[in-house]
């Protein structure tokens, strides 16, 4: 079990709030213990498959071909599939008893309404966590959000977001959403194995790379985090929709190997308590890796000298928007440690359009047709941005990628 200690400042705030309101900002002791324990838990089913194939005699190229083939024709039609692969597919394709398809679809619709803002606020919140070595070391070693690859890695993640929130996609066998989810799961396991063996990884302090607890934080960053934070930008997500998007993210966690039933929150309040607990137990031990990751991302939107005309203006618009999201959604006492664009022009754009968004968000509750149109509009904008930035590049979700040092 990883040792986690609540900071004195967070403890004092918790005590004051509890004294005056009766509300506890921290999760129950049992949840805290599970959160600490699950820093040492990975994904055994997928780990056996990766060890036997990608990191075994089969090798990465043949393993990738075998996985692609099984996703295309079904595992039952792959007679030479190893047993570990059959076990992985059986786990992946099993829909847990707790899944409510209506809630999954309602949660996906929330993502569709948030659109581009989901990715931007989620990424700003993620950047805020790079104070932690447990999160920064795997990303720096794998090259995920470091240096010139930062934008492309974000585009890979965006592709997953775009696919899983398509209507019905997360629960439809053979969908692109499920195919990409399984590849993300395998990629995470491969990176976990490589980083765990690297001399820069401190297992005593951090447990396992990409642990169950840390994967769960990303699920909260796609549900209660933006549900609350995006109110400032006019997105009026109801309590029922917040619970649905929590449920949706819990199922997405199942697809990518995040099994945290013992502590996954069922209410928004419990989700916020877990986020507060993470913030209260930060170790601030990422050293130079935190700035390396944070300071690479927003500048990666800067148009190159060869970009001219409307394309340059479009790129600068998104550069300022992304900087604005970091100013709004990174904790200011963390953000000030990094060299980032001011974010003020982007913040002005975001705040300026918030009333319009709020009007649409109010009106769509009165008209199902308008609600559907709003979802389609948001998704079209998000897809256009993704396709424009992606260009001729391809998302690979590459489980064979070597560490960069």
TrEMBL record:
Q: Which residues form the ER-bound oxygenase mpaB/mpaB'/Rubber oxygenase catalytic domain?
A: 110-342
What Pfam families does the annotation carry? MPAB_Lcp_cat
Which GO molecular-function terms appear in the entry? oxidoreductase activity
Cited InterPro entries = Lcp-like, MPAB/Lcp_cat_dom
Would you tell me the protein name for this molecule? ER-bound oxygenase mpaB/mpaB'/Rubber oxygenase catalytic domain-containing protein
């Amino acid at each position: 079990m990883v040792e986690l200690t609540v900071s004195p400042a967070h403890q004092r705030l918790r005590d004051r709030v509890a004294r005056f309101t009766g509300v506890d900002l921290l999760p129950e002791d049992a949840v805290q213990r599970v959160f600490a324990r699950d820093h040492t838990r990975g994904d055994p089913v997928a780990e056996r498959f990766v060890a036997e194939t990608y990191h075994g005699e089969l090798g990465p190229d043949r393993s990738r071909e075998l996985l692609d083939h099984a996703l295309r024709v079904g595992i039952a039609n792959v007679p030479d599939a190893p047993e570990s692969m059959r076990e992985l597919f059986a786990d992946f394709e099993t829909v847990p008893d707790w899944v409510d398809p209506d809630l999954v679809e309602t949660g996906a619709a929330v993502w569709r309404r948030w659109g581009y803002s989901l990715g931007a606020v989620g990424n700003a919140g993620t950047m805020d966590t790079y104070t932690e070595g447990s999160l920064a070391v795997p990303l720096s070693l794998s090259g995920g959000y470091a240096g010139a690859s930062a934008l492309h890695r974000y585009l890979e993640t965006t592709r997953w977001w775009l696919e899983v929130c398509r209507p019905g996609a997360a629960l439809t066998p053979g969908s692109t959403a499920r195919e990409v989810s399984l590849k993300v799961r395998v990629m995470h396991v491969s990176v976990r194995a490589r980083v765990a063996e690297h001399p820069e990884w401190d297992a005593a302090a951090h447990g396992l790379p990409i642990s169950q607890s840390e994967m769960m934080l990303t699920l909260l960053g796609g549900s209660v985090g933006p549900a609350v934070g995006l109110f400032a930008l006019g997105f009026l997500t109801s309590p029922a929709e917040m619970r649905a998007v929590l449920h949706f993210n819990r199922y997405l966690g199942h697809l990518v190997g995040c099994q945290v039933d013992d502590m996954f929150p069922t209410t928004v309040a419990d989700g916020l308590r877990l986020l507060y607990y993470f913030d209260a137990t930060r170790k601030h031990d990422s050293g130079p890796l935190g700035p390396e990751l944070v300071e690479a991302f927003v500048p990666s939107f800067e148009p190159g000298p060869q970009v001219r005309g409307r394309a340059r203006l479009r790129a600068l618009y998104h550069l300022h928007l992304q900087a604005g999201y970091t100013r709004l959604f990174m904790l200011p006492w963390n953000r000030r440690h990094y060299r980032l664009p001011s974010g003020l022009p982007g913040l002005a754009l975001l705040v300026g359009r918030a009333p319009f968004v709020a009007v649409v968000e109010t009106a769509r509750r009165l008209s199902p047709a308008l609600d559907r149109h709003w979802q389609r509009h948001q998704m079209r904008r998000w897809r256009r941005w993704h396709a424009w930035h992606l260009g001729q590049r391809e998302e690979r979700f590459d489980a064979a990628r070597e560490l960069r040092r």
